[in-house]
Amino acid sequence: MPEIRFEAAEVRVESPDLGGSRTILQPTTLSLTEQRIGIIGSNGSGKSTLARLVNGLVLPSAGTVTVDGLDVARRGAEVRRRVGFTFTDPAAQLVMPTCVEDVELSLRRTVKDRVRRKQVALETLARFGLAERAEVSVHALSGGQRQLLALAGVLAIEPEVLVADEPTTLLDLRNTRMVGDLLFSLPQQLVLVTHDLDLVRRCDRVLVVEDGRVCFDGDADAAVKHYVRTVSEG
What positions does the domain ABC transporter occupy (predicted)? Predict the structure, then answer.
């Protein structure tokens, strides 16, 4: 598995109301090498910020984040070829009119021939059970199908790491299970941000983030117990 390494990585944002900057992620040092890594925490805790550092959607204000030695701040393009990212709402990344066109867009840098690119896109859709929806408008898909399409577009370029930021939050139970099973069947290293405690229990290692810092790091069951206890006491 790739190594995702945080070395005293800190994120600050300008806060005019406070007359300066505000720290949203305290200095964090971690080495992540497990295949399935979960991140849980309350809304606004900093868990999505931590995840977005992995592919450079957020850059550290201090310290470093590397993926197999590649610094996300200095070699962002190379990192993003290795690290795919899916958002809570797939509408944030589905930009083309039809399903096949959306996957083709993802492949434009890696498959130069247009005929071959469409063929690869169709093969990718088939892998995700969307072959019959290839020429359908992305707006005509169900919530689960949209999330599958977003995953298909990201995974078409075969990244080594997939960061999934609350991928099941907008889904019903059936689609939550479908997307969850898909995520945990992937060969890629998975970094999963979620509020779904049943889903995160399937991870090899879980980080609990509160108030901008990792307050627990360990076994999934122990992490969930820690998080539930913290919420109950709060």
Answer: 4-234
